[in-house]
Amino acid sequence: MTANKKTTTNVNKASASERGNASAASMKAWHTLPGDAALQSLESRLDGLTPSEAKARLARHGPNQLPEVKRRTIAAMIADQFKDFMILLLIGAAVVSGVIGEPQDTIAILVIVLLNAVIGFVQEIRAERAMEALKKLAAPNAVVRREGQTLEIPAVNIVSGDIVLLEAGRIVPADLRLLEVASLRIAEAVLTGESMPVEKTVDAVPDHDAALGDRKNMAYKGTQVVYGRGVGVVAETGISTELGRIANLLGSEKEVKTPLQKRLAVFGRNLGLAALAICALVFVVGVMRGEDVVLMFLTAVSLAVAAVPEALPAVVTITLALGARRMVRTHALIRKLPAVETLGSVTYICTDKTGTLTQNKMKAERFSVNGSMVSGRPAICNESWTWLLRGAALCNDVSAAGEQEEQSTVGDPTEVALYEVAAEGGFRREHLEEDWPRIDEIPFDSERKCMTTFHTSPEGGWVSFTKGAAEVIVDRSLDRLGEDGTLPLDSERIGREIEAMADDGLRVLGIAMRRWKDMPSSFAPEEVEKDLTFVGLAGLMDPPRPEAEEAIGLCKSAGIRPVMITGDHPATALAIARRLGIADGPDDILTGKELAALSLDEFERIVQEVRVYARVAPEQKVKIVRALQDKGEFVAMTGDGVNDAPALKRAEIGVAMGITGTDVAKEASHMILLDDNFATIVHAVREGRRIYDNIRKFVKYTMTSNSGEIWTIFLAPFLGLPIPLLPIHILWINLVTDGLPGLAYAAEPEEKGLMTRPPKPPKETLFAHGLGAQIIWIGLLMGAASLATQGWAFYTDHAHWQTMVFTVLCLSQLGNALAIRSDRESLF
């Protein structure tokens, strides 16, 4: 049983001696100010504002909430769906079809137009939810001190200068300059991307441009307290907070059109102009030849309508929908259909590290005991390893439930990693404490950077285990544990081991012990945590996902450049990037501070060479995306936090995490990874390429068919032949032979070597790689076959010459549909 458990808490307070220049507050660099200077600048005090002061400030500055975004009306969103040139062209085609007496064509075209409008409208509604999701992060209530009294008030009523009390589980209600902390740790991943909770202090941070993750004396609105407690003064509220700045970025950042939307817009505009030119030319030539003016007008208009592939929007929509359905099976949920194809055009994937490339779970990867370094879980073969794992298990506050096979653990990620490696080695704390009961402890403190637990030893007496930052443990150690007792401490050798682990991106912890014949008279840390016996080191990290390295390699073979963007420490980021093959060395990494010092023009000169970004701010993620887009790249951006939302919205395709992602990130994204796995993005890229290939095949097919019709009708008069087809024939061929084969293309499997060819150049049109020439000459071939049939039948007085032309043209188009199934292999 545990006896008289007492806890020693070391509370750090901002001392009066920290006074500095309060004028710095005007720059809103609150982290640079000493605590009392921040209080003075905010005209506040530790016992809080008076109710009248708070009321006056609330009236002057407004409530602590994000402003309402001016939302577009439903009518405006509906009208936006009909602005595209191709859609307007189809509406014109529907009107013409109705005028010439083909109501079925009018209905079919209008159904296609309305279907596209409904899909677009639903996407607009989803986009509007992003700001609403952002507001949900605001804390509903907060504990404040006013006139010396502790009150719980709605967070919306907090004002600058209020004194806020924080404790585990609370959401930080505003941006705070911390004044007191007691083992305070705050999870800031939603703002910084930092995978580990941040240990907070009260000391001023002199670097004016320090990244958010390095401003350890600040607590930011929307983040969560996971451990300890603290007191802070409200520095910023509402839109002035870091969360508010992101809201501004999200509201001002417009989505860019996807590659497919850009290509179809150009295609539709050019096609419309070509259709009008063809209409005018056929009409003029026919009238000059002496044909009936009304007949030639109807023929020219029908031909112009036929030149417009009205099935294209339907085929594209259905192809994308089927692709989205296939992607769900591989854990990729598509929120906006054009994103399906966009993935096939991506040239850069800017990915978060934590949880996407890594397992989002700390793991003990390397150990050093008694002069030997071991990777992976050590085999229990000597006394030193036994004491290391015993210390890792007992000097640990993780709570666990369930059997070992199905055990769930709750606690600090670092402690969970040590708990698990000890349990795997046969040292499960729950069992150990039966023989080594904990009788006292000194909790972890950010100043001491260590913790200590006391246990009764089954061999008699007592044992204390101390765990903490490796350098601290070495400094407090007198000797080290060997196989046959204690040995002299080799601080230099251990220092080299610590440095080697740190260079590989590992978080290095030291474990030491001390035997006690008698319980110490005082449990003061300075008396107990000294003269220790050093046991060993443990190097921990959030390791890469096993499949991530293969996925990175596949990206490279496909001509896609993966880039890591993280809020983590540069050394950690670079270590993971090296292991995955993203980066080679320090020249490939850029920090947020270095990025901030570069203008956009300067940055654009080097942006294509950078492979890793560390300690970046939200607006810098947008800057990275913009710079790459300015260089002509198509960018996929992944993210899970609030800080990622503006960049997700700006990128050609934003990819949010389904498991760890915030609602804000999901609503701003185009695609959600249901398994938070980078490899899923690569699977989605493969599907996007297949879909673009199939859409391009349909364009090739339908335009070749339309070309055949145009050449047949246009050249007939020059050969002395009558108009070979009536307007109804043209519209029927166009409607039937375009639509159904086009739907078949939606299900075509991928071609060989799909992921070994480079991405399509960003400025490449639908007619690249000779597609335009093929449309012309294959159309000429169809037209020649049709005109040859017409000439033979007409000049031999065959009564059904028009039916024969109609049949030859239809069958040649269907034969062409089979030949186009592959761009690289023969039909046979």
Question: What does it look like?
Answer:
45% of the residues lie in helices and 18% in strands. It is α+β, with helices and mostly antiparallel strands. The strands form 4 sheets. Strands 11, 12, 15, 16, 17, 18, 19, 20 and 21 form a 9-stranded mixed beta sheet that branches. Strands 1, 2, 3, 4, 5, 6, 7 and 8 form an 8-stranded antiparallel beta sheet that branches. α24 links the parallel β26 and β27. α9 (293-307) runs parallel beside α26 and α25 (678-715) packs antiparallel against α28 (801-819). The chain starts with 11 loop residues before the first strand and ends in a 9-residue tail after the last helix.
Write a short abstract of this structure.
With about 850 residues, this protein is an alpha+beta fold. The chain is built from 28 helices and 27 strands. The strands form four sheets. Strands 11, 12, 15, 16, 17, 18, 19, 20 and 21 form a nine-stranded mixed β-sheet that branches. Strands 1, 2, 3, 4, 5, 6, 7 and 8 form an eight-stranded antiparallel β-sheet that branches. An eight-stranded mixed β-sheet has the order 9-27-26-25-10-22-24-23, sandwiched between helices.
The DSSP helix count reads 28
Strand content: 15-25%
Largest sheet, in brief, is: 9 strands, mixed
Tally of strands: 27
Q: What is the C-alpha radius of gyration, as a whole number of Å?
A: 35 Å
Mean pLDDT: 81
Class based on secondary structure composition and strand pairing:
alpha+beta
